[in-house]
Amino acid sequence: MRSELDKLPQALYEKDSCEPRDRLRWQNSYDRLLQDALARIPGVSRQQFQEALADRYRELKKQRRRDRQPKLPPRA
Known about the structure:
By secondary structure, the chain is an all-alpha fold. The chain is 75% helix and 0% strand.
């Protein structure tokens, strides 16, 4: 289950940031991972699960943004 929880925010990030032609593929991937996770956690709605993943998703977005920023060379 742990690896699924890591894959869900990644799939959502890819869906939100990919080329338009790839969006459906990432949406389907996210939906499949989400359905698999929900099947293992009875009594939790899709909305509740997505709210629980929101922090992980925000952290992933921040990390990706930081990774894309150019690094300054060290001072001489």
